[in-house]
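Escalation from tier 1.

The customer reports that the assembly of two entities below gives different structure tokens on two consecutive runs. Tier 1 could not reproduce it. I'm attaching the input and our single run for tier 2 to review.
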Amino acid sequence: MVASEVRALFAVASRPEVVSLAGGMPNVSALPLDRIGEIVQEVVAEQGPTALQYGSAQGDAVLREQICEVMSLEGIEADADDVIVTVGSQQALDLVTRVFVDPGDVVLCEAPTYVTAINTFAAFQADIRHIAIDDDGVIPEALEETLARLTAEGRTVKFFYTIPNFQNPGGVTLSSERRRRVLEICQRYGLLVLEDNPYGLLRYEGDPERPLRADAPDNVIYLGSFSKTLSPGFRIGWALAPSAVRAKLVLAAESAMLSHSTFNQMVVGRYLSTHPWREQIKDFNEMYRERRDAMFGALDALMPAGTTWTRPEGGFFVWVTLPEGLDAKAMLPRAVSERVAYVPGTGFYAGDEGHRHMRLSFCYPTPEQIREGVRRLVGVIKSETSLRDTFGSTSVPPTSGSDAPTPDIP
Amino acid sequence: MVASEVRALFAVASRPEVVSLAGGMPNVSALPLDRIGEIVQEVVAEQGPTALQYGSAQGDAVLREQICEVMSLEGIEADADDVIVTVGSQQALDLVTRVFVDPGDVVLCEAPTYVTAINTFAAFQADIRHIAIDDDGVIPEALEETLARLTAEGRTVKFFYTIPNFQNPGGVTLSSERRRRVLEICQRYGLLVLEDNPYGLLRYEGDPERPLRADAPDNVIYLGSFSKTLSPGFRIGWALAPSAVRAKLVLAAESAMLSHSTFNQMVVGRYLSTHPWREQIKDFNEMYRERRDAMFGALDALMPAGTTWTRPEGGFFVWVTLPEGLDAKAMLPRAVSERVAYVPGTGFYAGDEGHRHMRLSFCYPTPEQIREGVRRLVGVIKSETSLRDTFGSTSVPPTSGSDAPTPDIP
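Tier 1 run:
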């Protein structure tokens, strides 16, 4: 399948009779829509002439203070001067890449990792190198070995991109012990860390880990977002960066968009200052925990032997490894015709990898839909397994180009 | 003055006692704020779960149809498939530059031209070449001569960036005759035109000119915006591009921000479908005409001999040429201490040019403020002229780096 075929397939997959375990869309219907309707009107009524005007490239000063408060929940101490408001954390990713990456520079990231990050790094012609992860997140030895090899080769490595909490797509979280080691290795090699943390506050069990930024303010650019804890529809994300980097990012933002929407920034600011947003996140966490547990329950009960999956303590995604000889990408059209969709693992690697994997998301469908979706998926996997037993591997030859089914899978 | 000094100066210039003729901010207070307050609430109430969700990188399909209707007012026939919604037309500029420009490629633009366009071209390491303009817009012979020379030198010229209507900062409009010649020259050289038209509908007298895009759909990327006709606070602009280019721009947009704010797109869509927006633009034009006429009146009555200015039929800006030996950049601190601000001409060139020029804007201050601002400015110019007569030229040696007082002057 080439990219256009995947897109066509996803068009079919968005039909109502298909249970989609593919998209990473938050369940915004659970928001207090009446209150949000009031907030947007209040911003126009009370702050209209400012809200509807141009703003600064760095972002609204009040919101940047509030963002510092949000980050303090996870143990980050930051100055609002070092925050820049962006069009989702995607724009922050883009600005960081454009500031740091020259064609051919190496960017390190986890294997697998967020598909649109790969696309952005590739857009700036980075040489993307993957570092293996396991159930405790990225493997420090693998990181160190890669850095040692690249250094010996005289390569320029610009940064290490990581999603330490409830990784997309892996679902895994970097352990405390490994956080220390990763920071130690990166500091030793003088390597900047790009910490992407959209899901950190969406934890359904266990104790929160300290962000890498909290322990290495000078070595880490931290990316945050209101897309998962409030709404992606306002496109408010941010970067927190060491001052020298922040100044460069502000110039890049000015070139990229002049300024972000003042209105949207004030809406998010007013939501934070007038709505019990911490309680709202707790409510979201109840809802998402129930959905995650529905997925765990169905996987545990129904998946055939030889299939394994991660057990995320938060976030939106479970990463499934299929029995040997099965190919999630080749299997997708058959799954869609059985009215269930997922994202094949191949989208989450820069090279041709990940055929035995798929990402299942539990954020958007209801628990009932999740159970039904997994039931259908298990049917497909079982029938693929018998095919394999009869005819051998179901994999397809590698295709060229990105096969990521974006834009549907943030 | 270096960039930081200019910024500091503009911080002073934003004090209430200073009449600012510097910024290009539309007068959003003239908007029907009550109705806009209702619209934003209606979008949440009636379309909340969609409006607050991720959207497509290309932009909302309904809004793209409406954008085609807006463009049809100026004679453009377009397919919504070829429209991409962007974060202001600034993002469109940025995406086009990133898709087309490799370091060292030549980009042609008018002399002077929009400061943030220069910054964007420079950010992608374009070799920026200016083409002279006069009261009828860009001079075709100058364009042709430059193209012939660059072609002879074997240089790669990527596009010609032009603001044909009420140019920023020149205020001039490209005549019909010259539009034909510019298109003919660009087509002969196979050169893409990047037509930036934020002010086209803000015409206060005279007959509208046909956009370049209307007569050369395959050779022109057209940029539009709701920032001046509605509000810059929603950051909704667009590009209309030939299909092959549009597909590349959509991929670049996806990398740059995943998707624009669905909410903002729906707000603008609902405004267009429920508010008499054509009448609203007529009201704006009445208001801005009065402001422009206040500026013309004050300039005509007060400016000393040897000072000249353009006479824009629309838009926001008048371009002033000072008597020989005066330097608008050197004069700015003295003007600010006399409680009037403007943008020195030097900001609108890639090189060290424009010292004798300044941009005055009449969009944001009231007619009374404009008259008072011009009165103060004339006092400064007269005292500079006596200084010049006593001590010779007031100019300062060239400084390096961009001295553009952004982000205040869209």
